[in-house]
Each structure stands twice: as structure tokens, then as C-alpha cells.
Design a protein that fits this description.
By secondary structure, this protein is an all-alpha fold. It has one helix at about 5-30.
């Protein structure tokens, strides 16, 4: 076996091992998003008291 073929085999083997390890890591890592299990509608009632215009006059306004 000559020197260039041995060098090619070593470089090829290293490339296969590195690509395999990256692919294995991606497969074991799992999805990067959350899965929606249930959806519930949120309702909130807000009551704001209203002011009557005839009762909110100040005593000095009738002068």
C-alpha cells in the first residue's frame, strides 16, 4: 500500500467518524420545540365603575 492511499484512508475514516458523531448527536438531542398538549380559552371580566355627571359637580361650580 502506498503512502497516498494510506493518507486518503485515514482522512476518509476521520471524516466518516466525525459526520457519524454529529448525526448521532442531532438524533439524540430531540426536537427543539415544545409540543402543545392542551389549549384552554382565557376569559376575564373587568368591571369599571362609572361616574354620574350630575353628582360629580363641585360646590363651587354653581356660583
Amino acid at each position: 500500500m502506498n503512502k497516498s492511499m494510506l493518507t486518503g484512508a485515514i482522512i476518509g475514516g476521520a471524516a466518516v467518524i466525525s459526520l457519524g458523531s454529529v448525526a448521532g448527536y442531532q438524533a439524540l438531542k430531540g426536537p427543539s420545540y415544545a409540543q402543545v398538549m392542551q389549549v384552554a380559552e382565557v376569559k376575564e371580566t373587568v368591571k369599571t365603575p362609572s361616574r354620574c355627571a350630575s353628582r360629580s359637580r363641585s360646590p363651587t361650580a354653581s356660583r
